[in-house]
Structure formats: structure tokens, C-alpha cells
Automatic annotation (TrEMBL):
<keyword id="KW-0520">NAD</keyword>
<dbReference type="GO" id="GO:0016740">
    <property type="term" value="F:transferase activity"/>
</dbReference>
<dbReference type="Pfam" id="PF01370">
    <property type="entry name" value="Epimerase"/>
</dbReference>
<dbReference type="InterPro" id="IPR036291">
    <property type="entry name" value="NAD(P)-bd_dom_sf"/>
</dbReference>
<dbReference type="InterPro" id="IPR001509">
    <property type="entry name" value="Epimerase_deHydtase"/>
</dbReference>
<feature type="domain" description="NAD-dependent epimerase/dehydratase">
    <location>
        <begin position="2"/>
        <end position="263"/>
    </location>
</feature>
<protein>
    <submittedName>
        <fullName>Alpha-d-glcnac alpha-1,2-l-rhamnosyltransferase</fullName>
    </submittedName>
</protein>
<keyword id="KW-0808">Transferase</keyword>
Amino acid sequence: MIFVTGVAGFIGSNLAKYLLQLDDNIQIVGIDNLNDYYDVQLKEDRLKELDKYANFTFIKGSIADKTLVDNIFKQYQPSIVVNLAAQAGVRYSILNPDVYMESNIIGFYNLLEACRHSYDDGKTGVEHFVYASSSSVYGSNKKVPYSTEDKVDNPVSLYAASKKSNELMAHAYSKLYNIPSTGLRFFTVYGPAGRPDMAYFGFTNKLKNHEKIQIFNYGNCKRDFTYIDDIVEGIVRVMTKAPAKQQGEDGLPEPPYAIYNIGNNHPENLLEFVDILQQELIRAGVLPEDYDFERYKELVPMQPGDVPVTYADTSSLERDFNFKPSTSLRTGLRAFAEWYKSYYKD
């Protein structure tokens, strides 16, 4: 059984759907608190897609609820745990830090403890704990592309600090209790039915409503945009190959622990990104052909917590899993624009 947290979220729902379509014998239990950080209807619509599968079970609740998490582990005894439940968003962590501590720290700890106790009484226990980290952990690092070998002790937001904390906590539990764990640093995930707080989605909403879009750092930011299908394939490949358990020279376990970047390895300038987005929105009929984009673009300074460049070194992912994300930005934004036109029929 696979336990997926944040299953109504963008990545969680796509991962669950992929796995359910892959094999009728795969049992998935998903949890989500369906919070209102963004449109709950979008989350409910994602769940409707998953409810079609007999081998899917949904539990509404929070991973910060220790009793609930412990009961799920006791009842379903997952062999793989994929933790995608987290409060996302760099800027929102400045406005509402409490929810980051609750979900990203306490919730993460509850999952680690449940994994630890899954081995009690000689049980097989959790074979692999996979969790979402973020490119945000690289903070103010100057060296690009970002490598998992880089020192990442300079977070510039509480969100980034919470994700770095997850990696440290997972390492400690891997060392202490021999729990195979893998952290995945995602780079700017986008695609159909994505998160409305992400730039491409927010820009689309504003342009459709004839509102100005703000392009930060005067358009000089670069982002390594990663299409959702590439993220899902990366997770699935990683899930099936847990870090090996080994004894260290001290007779204690070497932590079966790994970290990978999942990014497109190709940063795009934000102005170029907006240009491709507007072309695809016109092509899909979301915006009229004579739309005056220049009128609605506003170049503004960098926002607190943001970084000028994200750029993933994916060499270790290629080496260990023979996989490299490859979906072009135009292909991905075309799929998003067509979904947007279909979903928001007005």
C-alpha cells in the first residue's frame, strides 16, 4: 500500500492518478486537509478524478494530527509513504508563518515517528519514505546550476527553512532507525490544474480580467520550470528504488538517505516565459488575438524571500534513474492554456 499525503494537491493528485492507472493492484490511501490557501473547488475536482478508482481511499485530515496519522499507519500499514502535504508558497510564509510550522514541521515529524514505529514488533515497516523538498532551500546560493552537493545553510524564507529542516530531520531518522528516505527538491512545477498561486496561473487570471501583472526583479529573474508529468515520472522512478541499508564502520547503520533535484535543467527568463504564455493563451482562445499585453505588464523590484535564479543540476537523477525532465516550456504552457480554456468555460 502507498500512502500519499497532500493527495488533493497539484503534485499529489497527479501522482495518485498515474499510479492508479498504472496497476489495478496498487492500493493508495491519500490524506489532505483541503485547506483554503487556494480554491478548494479545484482540490475537490482533482479528488473526483481519483474517486473513480476502487483501489483509492481518501481521508480528510491533517498530518499535524498525530493520532490520525498513527491510526492510518496501524490500519493500512503502508510500504511506501510519499509526503507531498506541506504549506507551500514563499511569500505566504512571511504573512502566515504559523501554518508552515504546523504542516511542514509538526506534520513532517508525525510522519517520521509513524515510519519509525512501523517497524515495531518485528514488522516489515515502511520500505521507503519519499518527501517533497524544494529548490527554495538553495536560498541565496550564488553558484549555478544548483547541486545537491552544495551547502544550503542560507534560506531566505521560512518556507525554505522548513524544507531544509525536513531534510535534516529525515537524515536523523534514517541514521537512528534505518529508515530509507529520499528528498526531492522540486523546481517550479507547473501544468494543467496546477496551483493558482503560481505565476503562470495568476498571470492568466489577471490578464483574462484585464488586470496588471507584476514581473519581479524587472523581468531579470530566471526559473527552471518543470512540467508536472516530468515531476510525476521522477517521483515514481525514485519510489521504486530506496537507498540501500548498509552497516557503517562503527557497527551502526549508514543512513539510507538521498536527495535529488527534479528540474528541467534549463532556466527561462521571466519575460520570455510571459511571452510564450501570452502566445499560448491566444492560441487556446483564453485571450483575444488583439490583446494589448504591454498595457498590462508592470516591471517591479524583487520581492522579499525570492531569489533571482533557480537552475537544477540533475546529473545525479540521470545517473541513478536514467531520467531527465525534458518537456519544453511551450509544450507545457500549451497544455495548461488548453486545460484553462476547458475548465473555466465562461
